[in-house]
Design brief:
With 512 residues, the chain is of the alpha+beta class. Helix content is 39%, strand content 20%. Pfam families: FGGY_C, FGGY_N.
Length: 512
């Protein structure tokens, strides 16, 4: 019986492939890393063929590790990082690297659009569900047209990284609705490419892959894929969706009102609904998982990277400093860090500011504060930032009781997990498995090929969760701290452009 399935997650820094049994337990896996290239200011690119080979190797090795179980694999299903853009020629060969979500070179085009179009920017958001930001291919296309005009003219199509891999396997240009939504070019009401967005990007539908629902699948492997994977040609391939919505499914945050929090290097907070949820000011995203499941929320640039920054800074003074020790020592400090507030915008910010020029800051420093206060303030700042994103969608969720499911590297810090529960004043459930996007892809795949009639009924092993209980004594402290955080963030927002301009001016003057 073919009741085993493979989930493939094409991430920003690595591809992970996991084999799951019929109950959702992982039984074999393999991953392959690849570099993020930054050959000029603001660039964040990857080589498409390196990722293609990483997918092939990880798939082949997972199949090899599965042994006799390979005969029981029924399908492959995909998850992918969002917002990538590759220009390809008529033969499907890349004319550019894969320009990732982290690339901010299109920031001037975003600023010009917001300045020139005003209210139209909100209308565009209402149609696409995507805030205007350099991460989106909509503005990457504007940058490419103006900064690399020869490539823009030569390009036969503009595609994402998953589209490219599937083309290499099946010789067809197809993209799923979730990946299309992340481009900023897809209309969430009509489920077609948005005419006004296409005009802004100066592309036609023919320049983009054919649209498919996330449940679309190929009945058989291509000869190329069968050879590279070692799988039987009768295995199906489900096109799947994007990593954020699939992570919600993988951790069990699929019912209306459920909230998934992920903090790795960056972070995100997402909630599920049966219809699109939009912010009136365009500060949160809304992407499809299926036609009846929508995931709303926001990505943040500054999650674990903020902890890494403070760790590396302190380690210069003391090489014995470890993450575990920093976290443990910061537990000595009371919630609120004695009024020390950290705005965590070290790498600009997506939600809720959508400002690539935003800067981080400590506010409230006094002689009483030491490095333990600073570490606690950094951890609190990252959570307060996520809570500010949640506040945008909370009123629209429509449920008084919220379930929070959390994943990511931050779960290695007992203090950070407790801060999350205390700020949200809600029990936090942390699943023992970590490959939530791969599992989500497989659960979507079972629904797609008809093994389950409802997505919520997808068979999953009874999940084991670590549960973090909020301390009610800290409710008012964090309520007051959040109000202060919001006020300080709003005040500082008026100064980010001036800081950004000053930094750039004096970098040039010093020859950097």
């Amino acid at each position: 019986m073919r009741n085993y399935a493979i989930g493939i997650d094409i991430g920003t820094t690595s591809t992970k492939v996991v084999l799951f049994d019929e109950k959702g337990a992982a039984v074999a896996h393999h991953s392959k890393n690849y570099p993020l290239l930054s050959e000029e200011a603001g660039a964040a690119e990857q080589k498409p063929d390196e990722i293609y080979e990483a997918v092939n190797e990880s798939l082949r090795e997972t199949v090899r590790k599965s042994g006799d179980l390979a005969e029981r694999i029924g399908f492959i299903s995909f998850s992918t990082a969002m917002h990538s853009l590759i220009a390809v020629d008529a033969e499907g060969k890349p004319l550019t690297n894969s320009i990732t979500w982290a690339d901010i070179r299109s920031e001037p085009y975003v600023a010009a659009y917001k300045s020139d179009y005003g209210g139209d920017a909100v209308e565009l958001y209402k149609r696409t569900g995507v805030p205007q930001h350099p991460m989106t291919p909509l503005f990457k296309l504007q940058w490419l047209k103006n900064e690399r005009p020869d490539i823009f003219k030569k390009a036969e199509k503009f595609v994402g990284i998953k589209d490219y891999i599937l083309f290499r396997w099946f010789n067809e240009w197809k993209t799923d609705h979730a990946s299309a939504a992340a481009t900023g070019l897809w209309n969430l009401r009509t489920k077609t490419w948005d005419e006004e967005a296409l005009k802004l990007a100066d592309v036609t539908p023919e320049k983009l892959p054919d649209l498919q629902p996330t449940t679309y699948y190929w009945e058989n492997l291509s000869d190329i894929l069968a050879k590279k994977s070692g799988l039987d040609s009768s295995v199906k391939v489900v096109i799947g969706a994007t990593d954020g919505p699939l992570s919600n499914l993988g951790v069990g945050a699929i019912s209306p009102g459920d909230v998934a929090v992920t903090i790795g290097t960056s972070g995100a907070i997402r909630t599920t609904s049966t219809s699109p949820i939009l912010d009136t000011e365009g500060r949160s995203f809304c992407y499809p998982l299926t036609e009846n499941h929508w995931v709303s929320g926001g990505p943040v640039n500054n999650g674990g990277i903020a902890f890494q920054w403070i760790h590396d800074l302190l380690q210069k003074e003391d090489e014995s400093v470890a993450y575990e020790k920093l976290s443990k020592d910061a537990e000595q400090i009371q919630p609120g860090a004695e009024g020390l507030v950290f705005l965590p915008y070290l790498t600009g910010e997506r939600a809720p500011l959508w400002d690539a020029q935003a800067k981080a800051s400590f506010l409230g420093l006094t002689l009483r504060h030491n490095q333990n206060h600073m570490v606690r303030a950094v951890l609190e700042g990252a959570i307060l930032n996520l809570f500010s994103v949640y506040s945008l969608i909370k009123s629209q969720v429509g449920k008084s009781e919220v379930k929070i499911f959390a994943t990511g590297g931050f779960t290695n810090s007992s203090l950070w997990k407790q801060i999350l529960a205390d700020v949200f004043q809600t029990k936090v459930s942390i699943p023992e498995h970590t490959e939530s996007s791969c599992l989500g892809a497989v659960l979507l795949g079972r629904f797609a090929i008809g093994e389950t009639k409802k997505l919520e009924e997808a068979p999953v092993e009874t999940k084991q969760y670590e549960e973090i209980i909020p301390n009610p004594d800290y409710k008012n402290v964090y309520k007051d701290l959040f109000q202060l955080y919001q006020s300080l963030s709003d005040t500082m927002q008026t100064q980010y452009k001036a800081l950004h301009d000053f930094q750039n001016k004096h970098k040039k003057e010093s020859g950097e």
